[in-house]
Design brief:
This protein is of the alpha+beta class and 327 residues long. It contains 13 helices and 8 strands. Helix content is 43%, strand content 16%. Strands 1, 2, 3, 4, 5, 6, 7 and 8 form an 8-stranded mixed sheet that branches. The longest helix has 19 residues. The protein is globular, with a radius of gyration of 25 Å. The structure holds iron/sulfur cluster.
Amino acid sequence: MLQQTTVAAVVPYFERFLDRFPTVQELAASSEEEVLRYWEGLGYYSRGRNLRLGAIAICEQHGGELPADVETLQQLPGIGRYTAGAIVSFAYDRAAPILEANTIRVYARLLGYDDDPLRAAGQRLLWELAALLPPKSGAGVINQSLMEVGSLVCRPQMPQCPDCPLQEFCRAFQLGLQEVIPPKKQRPQITQLVEGTIALRRRGKYLVRRRGPDERWAGMWDFPRFPLTSVDYNARLTAMSTRSVQEELFDSLHSNWGLTASQPGDLHQIRHSVTRYRIRLLCLHVVYDSGPVQHDDSQWATLQQLAELPLTRTSRQFAEHLAANGR
Ligand code: SF4
């Protein structure tokens, strides 16, 4: 849950999740859709899905007990080498190495390793070092401490070397290279996109589709969504461009779903970011006219029913906008 977010933001999610799924058995018995509803808003939805699959594997293959060794843990869905080492050392206090963003930086600096530590050779070297560090007893505390040193002292910028307990062992400090190790990553080129989404209403219900396993936000429900070319990312919406957007969205709805609609409402705008993409999403409310109502992986749902479904973040915002405007 903590990936790319803060502890303060995660605490309410964590508490709600544990209230609903207090045991591995209850998580294993749940549906993917319900787990995703509890995960909604956290992003990285494959983690929620894998947590449930892991619970199922623990119940079916391990008698409901979390394995206590790195190799067996790594057989579970979603558990890689770092997570396995963290579980074994934190939960069972057994010697197991960990390597994550903070410790990668600390170890690269300790060794004075000036190549990219994320490449295969760097990873091999750092895992070798990591394996030497945890003692037989107290491994969890040592691993936690090394992560804390990385987070609080050996920070990416301006590492606090005078206060560092590892200073006397640190090659980068001895060479004065702590600011340039590890080498800075190139920032990915930002891409601006314009997309449109449609809330198509029919008899008080809206059409939503479940995103496919190979799509971003897999398993989440979403209003039909299309790329838009009739307006630029930064262009102000005028009466004319609004009409062009409406026409383009009607065309997309027809060519992708065979559906026609009318009575377009005002365009509602949401700006959001996904990895290197900055997306301007224009949201349109329309009323169903004609076309097939049954589609694979889709359903018609009232706003109340949408409140129970796991929705993408933007569809949730759009649904809340519709509810606030009495749709
Ligand atoms: S001495 Fe400086 S560079 Fe070395 S581990 Fe400590 S904080 Fe990091």
